[in-house]
From TrEMBL:
The keyword DNA repair does not apply. It holds the Pfam family Abhydrolase_1. SUPFAM superfamilies: alpha/beta-Hydrolases. InterPro entries: AB_hydrolase_1 (IPR000073), AB_hydrolase_fold (IPR029058), AB_hydrolase_sf (IPR050266). One of its GO terms (molecular function) is hydrolase activity. This is Alpha/beta hydrolase. Keywords: Hydrolase. Residues 20-244 form the AB hydrolase-1 domain. It comes from Winogradskyella damuponensis.
Length: 258
């Protein structure tokens, strides 16, 4: 389905009935990343997956898509369906978007799951890497995506889930260069939102991959100790929906039923 938004198109999928769950994909992903999980969640809930700005079938709005810009696009979909309260599950960049939304409209958030994601801002080293990657995207996009995408998986997962990895890679390669650069620039600009998450009156869960090369799980666990933010650790890497699918599905169902 589509809605018109700022003279552009936002694409989303919708399945099931019940209390709504909003699924927000990560960088270089689309709503398709949830295909194996949505059928289970939609047995008891209305599940809405949204293609974020510059990804999948959703248009680009400019050359910088801040997490706030993406959150406003998500809010437009919620308003279109008159959704006042929902559980949000955000993978990686989708978690950053969910946090930006929680800062803007905390009353809308019944629960927030950061899946292989973080409330931390980019450090200087990460910002520099994004800047270099954006320069490379303009001249050598396919190689850039292939190199970075493989690192999302734990070493043994690259062989064990070879077909799933290749399918996800093909989707990533269809991301427009403008969408890549705009999202990357937006991620560089995002602030630390630990206080937003800590103070949010909602169910809160962080899903951590023990072999995730992008997210420092130990740092997150240390930071949330003594708060009401819960966490679960899985055995593999950044792509829990592929590498730890059954455990993830079970825990997400438990999370949204709270």
């Amino acid at each position: 389905m589509n809605i018109d938004y700022k003279n552009s198109k936002i694409y989303y999928s919708i399945e099931g009935k019940g209390d709504p769950i909003i699924l927000l994909h990560g960088f270089l992903e689309t709503v398709a990343m949830w295909n194996d999980i949505t059928p289970e969640l939609s047995k008891t809930h209305q599940v809405i997956g949204i293609d974020l700005l510059g990804h999948g079938q959703t248009d680009c709005l400019g050359y910088i898509h801040t997490m706030e810009d993406m959150a406003e696009a998500v809010i437009a979909v919620l308003k279109h369906h008159n959704i006042k309260n929902a559980n949000f599950i955000g993978h990686s960049m989708g978690g950053y978007v969910a946090l930006a939304l929680a800062e803007k409209q905390p009353e809308v958030v019944k629960g927030l799951c950061l899946m292989n994601s973080t409330f931390e801002a980019d450090d200087d080293e990460k910002k520099l890497l994004r800047t270099r990657a954006n320069a490379m995207a303009k001249t050598n996009f396919q190689n850039l995506v292939r190199m970075s995408f493989v690192n999302l998986f734990a070493p043994e997962s690259k062989l064990k889930f070879k077909n799933k990895l290749n399918n996800a890679l093909q989707i990533a390669l269809q991301t427009p260069v403008q969408g890549y650069i705009a999202a990357s620039e937006g991620m560089k600009l995002r602030p630390n939102r630990f206080e937003v998450l800590k103070n949010l009156k909602a169910n809160k869960l962080i899903i951590i991959g023990k072999k995730d090369g992008l997210i420092d799980g130990e740092q997150l666990i240390n930071k949330i100790t003594g708060t009401d933010i819960e966490y679960i650790e899985f055995s593999e890497g950044h792509m829990s929906h592929i590498e730890n699918k059954s455990e993830l599905t079970y825990n997400l169902i438990h999370f949204v039923e709270k």
